[in-house]
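Notes from the pairing session

We agreed to fold both candidates in a single pass and log them together. This is the raw record for the first candidate, unedited. Please don't reformat it; downstream parsing expects exactly this layout.

Candidate A
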Amino acid sequence: MAGALLCSGDCRIRNVPLLADVDRMGQVLSALGVRLTRQGDILDINAREITTSKAPYELVTQLRASFFAIGSILARLGVAQMPLPGGCAIGARPVDLHVRGLQAMGAEVQIEHGICNAYVPGSSKRLKGAKIYLDIASVGATETLMMAATLADGETIIENAAREPEVVDLANFCNAMGAKIQGAGTSTITIVGVSQLHSVDYSIIPDRIEAGTFLVAGAITRSELTLSPVQPDHLIPVIAKLREIGVTIIEEGSDTLRVLPASTLRATDIETLPHPGFPTDMQAPFMALLTLAEGDSLINESVFENRLRHASELNRLGADIRVKGNTAFVRGVPLLSGAPVLGTDLRASAALVLAGLAAQGKTTIQGLHHLDRGYDRLDMKLQQLGAKILRVGAPADTQLAPNTSASTSSIAT
């Protein structure tokens, strides 16, 4: 959606999930003067006229990804005013890499009173190609600078770029509009700037984290599930760890995975790493799974420093988890038992749903505003698989509004 700002024509994006974050991003774009129309999983975006360069504070502070639009706005208008971002409280995620990269491309950037003010000096208002090295392989910084470079004058090279599939998908989307991006998916991305981009009709990739969550759902409930469409190449570390634990994963064709139940789950060690390592977004669901594995598991969260708060909530369900710093020690228990718990962030909420499915008795999970940010009607999909799961106090409309009341609702499993 941020990439669509680069195009002065119509963009059609397919396979768009019903998420609170998508709605909130839509509000950000609407506030900039962009026209959006949604029909099912198809989102039409027309950014022909961006009427303002200033994004609304109250929205950007709730959705970190909306900050990434600063690169597109700056590339299109030569000026951008973007509040510092918010999102899940899983650790420090500064925007200094974004800022330094934009400065390398010729932008003047100042942060005052919580607002990042950026402009391109000179009459052309056009960013300049540059060679940029990222201290950390940040997905957000890679995407922001890659988008900014598509309309820059000259060649931009991003070294130590993030390699996640989502970066590749964004590059493919921009290229489909006429951008010249090479190397996405490697540590070096080269972008040759063009003067303008054209309309596109584009289908985004399946969500690998949602897919991974359903793989764990099958494993933790000892159920046989078939999952499609997925891209197995995006799930290599997740599938490898599930097989280590004793779960059978079968690839059926190019876009289908089948999970077969395991009689016994084995302990294993996990360390989260940037792609192609084990994804940090799958750490919480796997912690839920390992609570029921035989033996002792060690989970080291090396990406974010505040992403183990779900351990204490899993312990409420009878898990045996000790946390020291960024490391969790998980000793498997024979069973979990239902209890009231609170989702502290997006993936933590999903982990508690999975644990609740496997626990004996009733589990009530609050904090669904986190869950709805990144899962498209997870409760309804699980119901279709036979789960006894009920949302209480859900929004009447399945299309979540940005000010949804989901924060006061709960799920009972």
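Candidate B (folded immediately after A)
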Amino acid sequence: MPAARMSHFGIPLFLCSAVFATSCHAQASPPGMSPKVLTMLQQQVGMDDHLPNDKNPSGLHIQFSKIGESNEEAGHFAIYRAYVPGAPKDQTYVRAIWKIGADPEFMPGDVYLNSQGLMMTKMPRPDQEYKAIVDAEDEVEFSFPAARGEPVRVLLTTPDGKLVIPGTIVPFPIQGRERQCKLEARLALPEAAAVLIYADGLAPNSDIPYQSFSEGQSRAGTLHTNAHGHAVRIDLPYVAGKDSGNLKVAIATKECSASVEIPWGKGSYKPF
């Protein structure tokens, strides 16, 4: 999505009810964003919010527990073990990784779960069945290099594709907090051509004033929260005539305020 064809633009996102849905209700695509890209962003949100759908009717999701970091020649890696509470355990699974700017990639090897939902490389032995941690060689570990605000999405699926369980991890999040309010910015496209803004801890079923600023341009809008005080918005930070810059977004209510800032454009992607 070339910068020259995009402008600073915000889109309130009305969440669809299915992962990879193609018929979500959202505002018309802004200049520079094709319906295909907008659908992909809706897919990302569906995974992040683990919304129930026909392939995951219970809204199951992968939970990650950080177990370390390492500095390698390829970069700085955050390392996680993973759990899937409530998922069927007497079942073989396969996994896929979806990073921004790339297609989902299936990983080699079968995956198994014990009674704690711990993701394992082999069928759990009786002494491992109820453990939250097992020998390192028996756990499935995820190791991610990432930039600040970059999400990595994981799919756990049965071989027949009838059950698909998503999970999202942001190794180095960009967050702003005050009291119960939280605002988070996540990269949605390479070089922050689109940014997902997540808000939590707000008044339920409310319209919250929202302001974004990018290289001298500002936009005012509204976040529409759900029954849990959660809202999502897409922001396109590019400004005509600019190759790079910073996007700042802010919310403010009587109870609290929060803001986040994320770089965009040429040279903005810098793994942590």
